[in-house]
């Protein structure tokens, strides 16, 4: 389960992905992800933190891995945000998922 106790691990994983980002910004980003990530996707976040392969968790025809393939990049955080957006608002989320193909 993603909780405040996982904040430092998530912030550290974000910092590894974006080494130029200040530590405080990584912590703020991690806190926002913990608040906003749909509970069904928490397993993927924990897998990403640990470097484990991502489980396909299908929500409305999409999963994080598929979103990364659609977008043509291995950007877990971007795919996670797009899928969270899709969960909250399918029309906006679908635009965010497919936007890189334009």
Q: SSE string, helix = H, strand = E?
A: HHHHHH
Helix content: 55-70%
Radius of gyration, in Å, reads: 13 Å
SSE class? mainly alpha
Count of DSSP strands: 0
Distance from N terminus to C terminus (CA atoms, Å) equals 36 Å
Strand content: under 5%
Q: Which term fits the overall shape?
A: globular
| Annotation field: number of helices | 6
User: What would the average pLDDT be, to the nearest integer?
Assistant: 93
Low-confidence stretches are: none
Sheet with the most strands, sense and barrel status: none
Could you outline the blueprint of secondary structure elements for this entry?
Elements: H1 7-17, H2 23-36, H3 42-50, H4 64-71, H5 76-88, H6 90-98
Helix pairs in contact: 1-2, 1-3, 4-5, 5-6
How is this structure best described in words?
This protein is mostly helical. It is built from 6 helices and no strands. Helix 1 crosses helix 2, helix 1 packs across helix 3 and helix 5 packs antiparallel against helix 6. The model has no long low-confidence stretch (mean pLDDT 93).
């Amino acid at each position: 389960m993603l909780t405040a106790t996982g904040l430092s691990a998530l912030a550290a994983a974000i910092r590894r992905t974006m080494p130029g980002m200040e530590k405080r910004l990584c912590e703020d980003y991690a806190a926002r992800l913990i608040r906003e990530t749909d509970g069904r996707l928490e397993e993927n976040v924990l897998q990403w933190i640990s470097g484990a392969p991502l489980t396909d968790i299908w929500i409305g025809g999409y999963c994080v891995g598929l979103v990364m393939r659609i977008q043509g990049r291995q950007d877990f955080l971007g795919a996670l945000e797009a899928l969270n957006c899709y969960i909250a608002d399918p029309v906006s989320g679908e635009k965010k998922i497919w936007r890189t193909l334009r």
